[in-house]
Amino acid sequence: MPYKKKYLPLIIGVAIAAGIFIGGKLNFSDVPDKLFSKNSKKDKLNRLIDYIDYDYVDDVNTDSIVDVTVNGILENLDPHSVYIPKEDMESVAENMKGDFVGIGVSFYPYRDSIAVIRAIVGGPSDKAGIKGGDRIVMADGDTLFGNKLKDGELVKKLKGPLNSKVHLKVFRKGEPKLLNFTVKRSHIPIKSVDAAYMLTNKLGYIKINRFAESTYKEFKTGLDKLLDLGATELTLDLRDNPGGFLGIAEEIVDEFLEEDKLILFTKNKRGSIEKSFATDKGDFEKGKLYVLINENSASASEIVAGALQDNDKGIIVGRRSYGKGLVQREMDLGDGSAVRLTVSRYYTPTGRSIQRPYSKGNKDYYDEYFERIESGELLDPEKIQVADSLKYKTPKGKIVYGGGGIIPDLFVPIDSGMQNETLSILQRRGFIGYFIFETLEKNRKIYQGISRQDFIDKFEVSEAMVYEFQEYLNKRNESQLTFVAYHEEVKQYLKATLADQLYGLGAFEEVFNQHDLMIEEVIELSKGKK
């Protein structure tokens, strides 16, 4: 085929450039001629895409074919090697970086407009005077209301370059005319530390929802606050934390371990081992520590729990963690997309891998979660399957196991009251949040004189509000979502969501945790009653 000769110099140039680029990204020890040695399988794939691109009877978006091909390849590796399309990269990067540039409001795309839940305290909208309940109807002359606007389009109109200004027109209930605001965009944090407060006069609490670039700084701010309040013991809540950056998890572990204690080690397919040790820093090396985990605590969360457990530091409380012991590295594919490729396994200080088996394929791997539920493992620790061949000992002689997650030192069964499918649907689909927003819309002023702490300590959700919520569901043809068996639990959700929309800053967790089984166990441990 003549076009082959024509494009040969280009193909060679691209291959050389790609070799330099990928070599720099992956830090492979193999030389370029090894990495790009002749491979009929690679040639076959490239040739097929070229045939389709040049000769297929219909016009085809070959980019989409490549996306499908990449996903197909990764599905044959392991469950955690994933492809990130370029259209998703911005949100993924923002989430892991821990901030974005915007105007600083929490909002609902409510009915046909942007309804502000609250302005982030100290953010640009808060400084400009925007309040909860405001409707942002225009930005720089562009209309921000109407049924045809999608969530992503609304967000794009509010984002922009750092320090740029946006002119907003806002409808506020009770005001005769639209209000005008000029807001200067700035860095808006995406919080990875949900809450940091005192459970008792000596027991502090910090909840981390993921390990992003900003997490260690947020954690240190929270820890310093608790130390100033007199905390000598700490509860670190890693429940439902899916992980994140390995290095950030190591920094947090370093706050609890003495110098030169092994945090973890990683091993790649060539047998190369890298070890990570605690340094001489650490503000909580002597205090008592309790770490909360559950079946959704994964990856970096398990690194923290495993490193502490293997060093006999603290007590791990909860249920067996997810079981992800693979390390990914993000690699740019050159067109705005990227792949997170598994490059090594990590091991806890005693030498155990906590990665669940995945040799039977991705479906079986993810179905194992439901098998845990069906086996009764979430209710009874005796149902946890362990292998004697994967038994290890900590320096103080405690038995720990590898092969599939971190098994806690103190088991706490799942709370079938607060953690059930009905409440999960109500929360996940936004019914509770929207109902609370509409409740506040009727009369926000009745809450203006209530301080945050008074609300958390004294406010009680009325029976009338609970019945109104059921009527709210009925009117939306969701009458099948009844919660007769979970009446008190719904009250707790309603109060926590109300606290969140009124005060933010961890108010949801402070309310929700008041009837949390794991936290009750930790408080009992702290009092010496366990």
UniProtKB/TrEMBL annotation:
Protein's UniProt keywords contain Cell membrane: no
GO annotations of cellular component type: outer membrane-bounded periplasmic space
One MF annotation (Gene Ontology) recorded for this entry: serine-type peptidase activity
Gene3D superfamilies assigned: 2-enoyl-CoA Hydratase, Chain A, domain 1, 2.30.42.10, 3.30.750.44
Domain Tail specific protease, first and last residues per copy: 176-357
One of the GO BP terms on file: proteolysis
Top-level taxon of the source organism: Bacteria
Keyword Hydrolase: yes
UniProtKB keywords: Hydrolase, Membrane, Protease, Serine protease, Transmembrane, Transmembrane helix
Domain PDZ: 99-174
Membrane-spanning parts: 7-28
Pfam families noted in UniProt: PDZ_2 (PF13180), Peptidase_S41 (PF03572)
Similarity comment: Belongs to the peptidase S41A family.
Name of this chain's protein: Carboxyl-terminal processing protease
Record organism: Mariniflexile fucanivorans
Source organism phylogeny: Bacteria, Pseudomonadati, Bacteroidota, Flavobacteriia, Flavobacteriales
